[in-house]
Specification:
Helices cover about 35% and strands about 25% of the residues. The chain has nine helices and 17 strands.
Length: about 300
């Protein structure tokens, strides 16, 4: 397995704010230090390269630290929703033969004799199950980096961006693009556990959010709320992901907000594939758009 090193990307951005919640803000340097501490804690709990971990991923600084620490250790992590029941978590633990369940500050060994995986995968994403039983999509470190590079180029992600995380982090787009790409390229990641549209609009204004990826239904709700009285939003673009964006939602949102609404198309298996920046319509939905370079 090739050496996994995400820390240098964090260290390169030093004193700038990396991740922020309503109660916490960490610079890239502070985040790198927290990741190193967490690596030592995970090692002390018996985790080694190749072990599998089921990782519960609420929107929190601790989740970000865990994601990066597990990646740094070449541990095979399977991010899952905090909404899963204990029974559902147990099924995934058994399916991937996990050594431990990790959630924020907790490390709960579930199978001390779990075998270590010999393949190069460091990430297992559960697919949406839209075509049958959810599949476990394996991603190597190299594939993760390639996916984040394609995304950066597609949306022109830069250090000047502030990205709001409302998508689930166990979602392929949420994990690869919202979390990892944002941090890799020095943008600021804003986490919020509150996803009410009015609260999100307030957060966008107060935090100077420039990029907002979300599902089509969320943009529908934002349009129904209407534009805030506080003036134009700082957003340079919103990105609709997860399912096809309908003409109705696109027209409703863009008629209320003076903000471009792009549609991103991709899959858990492939990562980002195409982006429609122009609003081109095909029937009752937006067209897929242009295929992204290096796909």
């Amino acid at each position: 397995m090739s050496e996994v090193r995400f820390l240098p990307y964090l260290e390169a951005h030093g004193p700038r704010v990396a991740v922020k919640t309503p109660h916490t803000a960490l610079t890239f340097a502070e985040l790198a230090e927290r990741v190193q501490v967490r690596v030592r804690e995970l090692h002390s709990a018996g985790l080694k390269e190749g072990h599998a971990v089921v990782h519960v991923v609420p929107h929190s600084v601790e989740t970000v630290v865990n994601c990066l620490a597990l990646l740094e250790m070449s541990v095979f992590q399977v991010p899952v929703s905090p909404q899963l029941t204990n029974s559902e978590c147990q099924q995934i633990i058994e399916r991937v033969k996990a050594y431990a369940l990790v959630r924020e500050k907790e490390i709960l060994p579930v199978a001390a004799d779990a075998q270590r995986h010999s393949n190069a995968a460091v990430l297992g994403l559960l697919s949406s199950g839209s075509t049958g039983k959810p599949k476990l999509v394996l991603r190597t470190y190299e594939q993760i980096l390639a996916s984040t590079e394609i995304y950066r180029s597609a949306v022109s992600l830069s250090e000047s961006d502030s990205v709001l995380a409302v998508l689930p982090l166990e979602h392929s787009y949420g994990f690869h693009n919202v979390l990892l790409a944002t941090l890799r390229y020095g943008a600021r990641l804003i986490l919020s556990s509150v996803a009410h549209p009015r609260a999100v609009l307030s957060l966008v204004q107060n935090e100077g959010i420039t990029l907002l990826p979300a599902a089509p239904v969320f943009f529908d709700l934002l349009a129904r709320c209407g534009a805030p009285d506080s003036g134009p939003l700082p957003l340079r673009a919103c990105v609709s992901v997860g399912t096809a964006l309908s003409r109705r939602i696109y027209e409703a949102f863009t008629s209320v907000f003076d903000v471009p609404l792009w549609q991103s198309y991709g899959t858990s298996e492939s990562g980002p594939v195409a982006l429609n920046r122009t609003g081109t319509i095909h029937g009752e939905f937006l067209a897929l758009g242009e295929v992204l370079p290096k796909v």
